[in-house]
Amino acid sequence: MAGILGTGIQDGLLLKPVHYQWAMDLYDQAVANTWFPNEIQLGQDLADWKKMTDEERHALEFLMSYFNPNELLVNKALAFGVYPYVNAAECHLYLAKQMWEEANHCMSFEYVLETFPIDRDKAYAAHVEVPSMAAKEAFETKYIKRMTEETLDITTTEGKKDFVKNLIAYNIILEGIWFYSGFMVALSFRQRNLLRNFGSLMDWIIRDESLHLKFGINLILTTLEENEDLQTPEFAEEIKQMILDAVEMEEQYNRDLLPKGILGLNADYVNQYVRYLTDRRLEELGFGAHYKVSNPAKWMAAANDTLELVNFFESTNTSYEVNATKDKK
């Protein structure tokens, strides 16, 4: 096998022997984690919605406006920017399950829009009309356009760099930092004993996203390891700068999300969490921490540290896993 990258249609058609066991393990875990939004009685949260403040409702609407289109944007990044350039069958299996999960997340946020009295047209328009949200989307689409509107040659150093940058944009920045920032705000309602069923929905989404993040990190590190031409200080600095630029955009977005503060949260608190998360992502990619700030939301630790994922699943979610006992006879 030549490596994880390649575009041969007839390559990657045999699953065994598995070359990248981490991808197979993540696929098996993802299948075990399968869930459906309507299993949660979201309507029970309507009583909370009625007693929430305008600022609290704005935050929830703002999050739905961002999450809903971006789940589908991730699928485009996977379909056009990752799947065609990866050879290993086990990676294709995982990516197919990830794409289904992103669709399931989109339907989860539709369920929220259907359940609560949220103006759908306004929510749909926000990702274009709110400048901080539109700026984040423009940042992401810049990288996927390299794959969809131009010809990318994965055998060249430049082509491989564009492949990695797309992974950084979607797996690390969008899913690993921007989504997690929103997850923390979303789960803050439950911390104040509000929207408990919505919180359960977010738990399941985060469980999926933590695997997406782990797959992306493994794919990036494997690509870098297998391609010495990418192992330059200049390219490392370019990747790091992408991530730091993204933090600035997220900080502005959070100021629009929380103009006055809610639930004991304000934009500064959320942005410290963003910086803490960013340091974790930088470390997972082999960089040192940049911001060196403490985690202001320590109650989120189980969901956001990929190194703790195995313990997180075993201690928290085993009761829900599909076929959880199949290997324990």
TrEMBL record:
Pfam families: Ribonuc_red_sm
Organism the protein comes from: Candidatus Mycosynbacter amalyticus
Reaction catalysed by this enzyme: a 2'-deoxyribonucleoside 5'-diphosphate + [thioredoxin]-disulfide + H2O = a ribonucleoside 5'-diphosphate + [thioredoxin]-dithiol
Ligand binding (Fe cation 1): 71, 102, 105
Domain of life (superkingdom): Bacteria
Keyword vocabulary terms for this entry: Deoxyribonucleotide synthesis, Iron, Membrane, Metal-binding, Oxidoreductase, Transmembrane, Transmembrane helix
GO molecular function term, any single one: metal ion binding
Name of the protein in question: Ribonucleoside-diphosphate reductase subunit beta
GO BP, sorted A to Z: deoxyribonucleotide biosynthetic process
This enzyme's EC code(s): 1.17.4.1
